[in-house]
Amino acid sequence: MIHQIRIDNFKSLVDFEIGLSRFSCLVGLNGAGKSTVLQALDFISQQMRGDIDSWLEQRQWEPRDLGSKLTAKQNVDISVQVETEKHGLIEWSASFNRQSLRCTTEEAFCDGVRLLKVEDAEFWIDRSVKQGSLRDVRSEIMFEYQGSILSQLKRKQIGEPLQALKEVLANIRSLDLLSPEHLRQRTRDSAGHLGLGGQKLSAYLHEQGSEVRQRLLEKLQHAYPQLASIDTRSLRSGWKHLDIAEQFSGKVLSTPARHVNDGLLRLLAVLSQLASDEHFLLFDEIENGINPELVEFLVDALVESEHQVMVTTHSPVILNYLEDEVAKQGVIYLYKNAKGATQSIRLFEIPSLAEKLQFMGPGEAFIDTQLTELATEIQSLSAKGGKDVSAAKR
User: Fold this and answer.
1) What are φ and ψ of residue 153, in 5° steps?
2) pLDDT tens sequence across 300-315
3) Which of 70, 61, 81 is nearest to 10 (CA)?
4) Do 109 and 121 meet the contact criterion of CB atoms below 8 Å apart?
5) Based on the number of CB atoms within 10 Å of its own CB, is 143 exposed (0-12), middle (13-18) or buried (19 or more)?
6) Angle, to 10 degrees, between the axis of helix 34-49 and the axis of helix 155-170?
7) Where do the DSSP E strands lie in the chain?
8) C-beta separation of 393 from 18 below 8 A
9) Helix extents (H) in 22-179
10) In the 8-state DSSP scheme, what is residue 134?
11) What is the model's pTM?
């Protein structure tokens, strides 16, 4: 699980830190940086996949779009803390150069022992946390790559702790551009994932096989009892087609994906990812297109998932279905400081919200609050404490 990230010089994120729970929910005013945080996590994941060019093309971005207008820095600095079951806490930091599209410096530590160092076109690797010296495996970098050097090195080259770090970060999966238009598209293959907008849904479900589709059907039937089947087939030239069948009065009606309602398609996409092998799932404005009576079903599925999950929302309804402890740990308020940089704090660590939570539900406390006034309260706390109170980063 990823416990904490720090990123500097990524869009509105300047010296930005955030602490993460198993389930995290970002709230805040429009423009506060909620979507940017999801994009930053996806950017961090791309460091371990290595194809930065394709990722930028997917988002229709240029390298210059990554940097913040609030600073003159060129590199994007990253720091991540990952808790692994076998190796404990692993810390990785890197400096990403927007011209070369690679991390020009990197370090990784496990239990205080340095596992990796990249500097001056050379790298050092310690394959075991029990070893103490990196000098014996110092190597000159003689190959081209993008992102982290770990994206190009194999398991036998880097050892188990670094491989565990690589897998956790590489298996962050963002669906922050999820939309009905994308979900309805036919595609030839999915490469094992849905795509940022869910545009590979038909191919993804086809490749997962009938058993996976049956399990998804059984889950969805709790929300849509009339569902009869989720069917896919391969067309000419390899295109994959998706049909949803429903039963009414004993008659089965099959509907192609291009005519299926938005909410069902979105739920199908979300649940398919909760059944995947990804480690960390990111969803933007999770309530979009979902009927209010199905929100509890969706929230329960996200909170109870074995995956680490982050969502953004503008809806107090989402918070209403969170247990108080889940809300205390996972709901994070984002706002911009006087310089325009995004800041974070756990919503219910703000005194006025903590007080309301004693006699209101999380959603009720949220809707009873003027978000425009919270920044003033946070600033007053910072002034009294003499330090930054962005507690969500600790």
Assistant:
1) -95, 140
2) 999 999 999 999 998 8
3) 70
4) no
5) exposed
6) 160
7) 2-8, 16-19, 23-27, 76-84, 88-97, 102-110, 113-119, 122-125, 139-140, 172-175, 227-234, 240-248, 251-256, 280-283, 308-312, 331-336, 342-346
8) yes
9) 34-49, 52-59, 155-170
10) S
11) 0.91
228-253 exposure pattern, b = at least 16 Cβ within 10 A, e = fewer: bebbbeeeeeeebbbbbebeeeeeee
Contact 165, 92 (CB under 8 A): yes
Structure tokens given for 330 = 């996972």
Whether 219 and 168 have beta carbons less than 8 Å apart is answered as no
**3-state SS, residue 366:** helix
Q: Burial level of 193, CB count in 10 A (0-12/13-18/19+)? A: middle
Tell me the pLDDT tens digit for each residue of 66-84: 999 999 899 999 999 999 9
CATH number for the domain running over 2-171+286-393: 3.40.50
**Burial of residue 67, with CB atoms counted within 10 A of its CB: 0-12 exposed, 13-18 middle, 19 or more buried:** middle
Alpha carbons within 13 A on the beta-carbon side of 90: 25
φ and ψ at 275, to 5 degrees? -95, 5
Domains of the chain, by residue range, sit at 2-171+286-393, 182-277
Helix axes 52-59, 34-49, angle to 10 degrees: 150
What's the CA gap between 88 and 115, in Å, rounded?
Answer: 14
Residue 265 · residue 183 · CB < 8 Å: yes
Q: Report phi then psi at 308, rounded to 5.
A: -80, 135
Task: Write the CB contacts of 336 (distance below 8 Å, at least 6 apart in sequence).
Answer: 12, 31, 32, 33, 342, 343, 375
Residue with tokens 């310089």: 339
Q: Quick one: DSSP state of residue 193? A: S
Paired with 236 in beta bridges are: none
Q: Which residues is 49 bridged to in the sheet? A: none
pLDDT in tens, 117-145: 999 999 998 865 544 444 456 788 999 99
**In residues, how long is the chain?**
394
Cα–Cα distance list, 194 to 41, 187, 281 (Å):
17, 10, 12
Longest dimension (CA), the chain: 73
- In the sheet that holds 172-175, the strands lie side by side as 172-175, 280-283, 308-312, 23-27, 331-336, 342-346
